[in-house]
Amino acid sequence: MSKLSDTLGRLGVRNPALFNARQPYIWHHAYSGRGSFGSAWVVTKRGENLTAENANWHEKPNRWFNHAGRDDNALALAEAQVWAAERFGIENVWKRDPFGAYASAAFVEARTAYLLYTVSLLDLLADGPLDEGTLRQRVAGSKQGRKARPTWFETALALLSKEQRIAVDADGLLRPTGH
């Protein structure tokens, strides 16, 4: 993994599905050499069934664009990108996310910037890098820590918002509130 994907992993974002949330994205299914599933570019959007009417059972709920080898790999990717752009009404400009999947270039840039901003804000407000172990130790005695098992990110937000250093605004973005 890259440094960027490791950094995003600190927020619990560890794969294309978590990075892209409910945005459409295209990932590559590699042929494993066994079984009946060949190589394909796969369009996915969480919460939507994109399957063609005559699709095989293993293709549900995604839309698969199969290719036979390296020669038509780029052609299948281009076909998947055009189909997804038309299907979702987005601009046909794609960029790889930190985990190797393709998504709308504007979304990848905005999401990456926001997540990096969130990591830097959490580090700044905690007076140094936070890791999962440190956070769990700091909230282990709290009622919230015993009742539910929040994610790393939820724990950090709860801890920092208790200290009134951070708040989530109406758009769902983190904003510093002062010390």
Task: Label this structure with key terms.
alpha+beta
Shape: elongated
Main sheet record: 5 strands, antiparallel
Q: Compute the number of structural domains.
A: 2
The stretches of 5 or more residues where confidence is low (pLDDT under 50) are 141-148
Query: Strand pairing plus helix content: what structural class?
Result: alpha+beta
First-to-last CA distance:
36 Å
Rg over CA atoms = 20 Å
Order of helices and strands: HHEEEHEEHHHHEE
Question: How many helices?
Answer: 7
Strand order of the largest sheet: 3-2-1-5-4
Average per-residue pLDDT, rounded, comes to 75
Write the layout of secondary structure elements.
Blueprint: H1 3-9, H2 16-20, E1 25-29, E2 40-44, E3 63-66, H3 73-88, E4 94-96, E5 102-104, H4 105-125, H5 132-139, H6 143-147, H7 152-162, E6 166-168, E7 174-176
Antiparallel strand pairs: 1-2, 1-5, 2-3, 4-5, 6-7
Helix pairs in contact: 5-7
Task: Provide a descriptive summary of the structure in words.
Helices cover 41% and strands 15% of the residues. With 179 residues, it is of the alpha+beta class. The protein folds into two domains: 25-89, no CATH class; 108-176, no CATH class. A five-stranded antiparallel beta sheet has the order 3-2-1-5-4. A two-stranded antiparallel sheet has the order 6-7. The longest helix is centred in the middle third of the chain and has 21 residues, at 105-125. 21% of the residues are buried.
